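Chain A, query sequence.
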Amino acid sequence: MKKRNLLMSVIILAVSFGISLSSVAEAAEVAYPTKPVQLIIPFPPGGWDLAIRPLADVSESFLGQKIVIVNKPGAASVSGTAEGIKSRPDGYTLFVAGVGAMSLQPHMGKVPYKVPDDFEPVMLLGSNPVMLAVGANTPFKSLEDLVREAKKRPGEVKYGSSAPGSIQHLAVELLSEKANIELSHVPFQGAGPAVTALLGGHIDLCASNPLNLYD
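Chain A, predicted structure.
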């Protein structure tokens, strides 16, 4: 019974984080976990990070070990994903897979892994729409205002995204194409820094998700 409960605890942790069960199931055949478990989040603090940390806290009560969260942002979540892939498959290093790393970047350039061959999806952790936010000091009160101003000043209206090639970046580029406007892209290392730049008046607008734009 104890072994069954242990295995169920490991499965709960794996499902909570949307990771592969292959490594943790192997580890469950022995005493697991006997030390803290590292969880790699390929995003900077804030946003998805805030949604995942409570799951880690709950999982600790099941496992009886500390979940050590390590933020490894960069390259539209490719950096953290690559770090997770090269770790030992012993169940002590887990990672969260981001949309950019899994669905976009493999089609835009070289990445140090193969999708889907190197992964075993378990569940969808969550989904968020892409939202467009403008600074309070800008004259934009609607999307029409933004398009009108961008046509007056091609390439001068600046927008931020979490990274080049991120879903937020591509969403605004699609908007630019459809509206026949030219916006200036300012990439950041994560959505949090992009929102901070927006609040500081360094950019005019920012493409992000509700987790980053609401308290």
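Residues 1-22 have pLDDT under 50 and may be disordered. Residues 2-107 form a domain with the D-Maltodextrin-Binding Protein; domain 2 fold (CATH 3.40.190.150).
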